[in-house]
Amino acid sequence: MKLVIIANRIPLTIRGTDPLIFVRSPGGLVSGIDAFIKKANISDWVWIGWVGSRVKKRDLEKIRSTLIQESNCIPIYIPEKLLDKFYNGFSNKTLWPLFHNMPDLATYKQDEWQSYQEVNKLFFRALIDNVEVDKDTYIWIHDYHLMLLPSMVREFYPDAKIGFFLHIPFPPPETFAQLPWKRETLEGLLGADVIGFHTYEYTTNFLRSLSRVLGIEHSMGELVYNSRIIKADTFPMGIDVDKFNVKDDEIEEQVLSIKQVLHYKKIIFSVDRLDYTKGIYNRLLAYEDLLKRREDFRNNVVLILNIVPSREGVEHYQRMKRQIEEKIAEINGYFGSVEWVPILYHYKSLPVNELIAHYRACDVILITPIKDGMNLVAKEFVASRQDLKGVLILSEFAGAAKELGEALIVNPNSIEELSKAIEAALDMPEDEQSFRLKAMQERLRRYDILRWGNDFISSVKEISSKREILKTK
Ligand code: F6P
């Protein structure tokens, strides 16, 4: 089998061209697929995507040959005039808010839609120019940036095995219907054999949209379009449990040092990309409420708030950053003292070992998005706690809540509920912590990243062979 991954980003982001400097790309998509390729021992694979930052066309050849030789990646050059409208524009100002069911934040611009179409064509060209596609090739397209690509590929390779996986939510049909280009988007996706989602809710939303917009009905997720069988199904993305469950002295030293530096105060940890969907501001309001209500926590609790820079070119993200930073300053200014800073704020991405050390050092982790496709951080935290201690507070609106029911599940829109959940977590007896973590860890082991990828690929195999049978009838 040959696996061709096509996603907006390759797993490496370029930070400098002279000399060439690469860092790991952010986000769950990259870490998940990377882990799947390794765990499944796939040797024949290639990954097509954007290099993650603006590069000059003249540097591309050097970047390209290094990436192809050293990392199996084929970088795509997106011209400056398309990049902003494609990435900051249509992908992140139209699709992102709409798919997270925040239609008031979505904008609809014809020129951005055009750029989106053109960039999808660039990805298509990169595939046909660089990869030999045969009957053993699986073309696996990822996420909302590339929803037109499956049909482009299907038209060129009618018999290809094509899968598409959406890493963000699919909104209810009433919300999706607001997209002026809804028909084109759905028709684009229907080029795939299998269209995968993280939760049953998103799969159902997609199938209901198909019925509403294109009048296509299904039976158990299977439907026929252009005389082809297509399947929409649920594949909740897992993690590489061993990577987070690792025994490592260096990590343990870091855990100890975090605890020592903070004088063994209780630690609440929070880590997200900076995004208005993540509910970071409400989290701060809840912490503030807690400090007001429970004076005994003052001086004894620290919130480590780690925010990973993201989409800095989009105004809404810039505004969000200012609001969050003002609130942090207000809380620290009001409650803080020479001995105690209530919130330790870091605006950077953490290397994986440091991240694991934070997961292990904390007493409570706060993951409270307003809406989130899956949220792998929740799963990583659970997997990393070999000591079976620590409490996960998780929003009911994260896809992960469907699998992690032993967490303290909260509605992030209620500051009171959040504040009470933090209080309950800080007061939770250790045996209850262990009981909850153990159940979740067992579930994570059963449906890990390997199982997720294998299930998806098997489904593509099954549906494409049904297509072949249909053809011979
Ligand atoms: O989860 C959705 C997603 O867009 C992923 O594709 C990616 O892993 C993550 O968010 C990071 O976003 P961006 O690529 O815009 O930095």
Question: How does this structure look, described?
Answer:
The chain is of the alpha/beta class and 473 residues long. It is globular. α1 (28-39) packs across α17 (449-472), α10 (249-261) crosses α13 (352-361) and α11 (280-293) crosses α15 (415-427). The strands form three sheets. Strands 5-4-1-6-7-8-10-9 form an eight-stranded mixed sheet, sandwiched between helices. It has a six-stranded parallel sheet with strand order 13-12-11-14-15-16, with helices on both faces. Strands 2-3 form a two-stranded antiparallel ribbon. The two termini are 27 Å apart. It has helices spanning 28-39, 60-71, 80-99, 110-130, 149-156, 173-176, 182-189, 200-214, 241-244, 249-261, 280-293, 315-335, 352-361, 376-384, 415-427, 430-446, 449-472; strands at residues 2-9, 12-17, 20-24, 45-50, 73-76, 137-142, 161-165, 194-197, 222-225, 228-234, 266-273, 301-308, 343-347, 364-367, 391-395, 408-410. It is 48% helix and 19% strand. Bound molecules: 6-O-phosphono-beta-D-fructofuranose (F6P). Residues 8-9, 26-30, 143, 167-168, 310-311, 373 line the site of 6-O-phosphono-beta-D-fructofuranose.
What's this entry about, in short?
With 473 residues, the protein is α/β, with parallel strands linked by helices. The protein has 17 helices and 16 strands.
pLDDT averaged residue by residue: 96
Strand element count: 16
Q: What is the rounded Rg? A: 23 Å
Q: What count of helical segments does DSSP give?
A: 17
The molecules bound to the chains, other than polymers, are: 6-O-phosphono-beta-D-fructofuranose
Q: Which structural class should the secondary elements be placed in?
A: alpha/beta
Sketch the major β-sheet: 8 strands, mixed
Which residues form runs of ≥5 with pLDDT under 50? none
Strand order of the largest sheet: 5-4-1-6-7-8-10-9
Percent of residues in helices:
40-55%
Shape: globular
Share of residues in strands: 15-25%
How far apart lie the N and C ends? 27 Å
Protein name: Trehalose 6-phosphate synthase/phosphatase
GO cellular component, one term: cytosol
GO molecular function, one term: trehalose-phosphatase activity
Family: In the C-terminal section; belongs to the trehalose phosphatase family. Belongs to the glycosyltransferase 20 family.
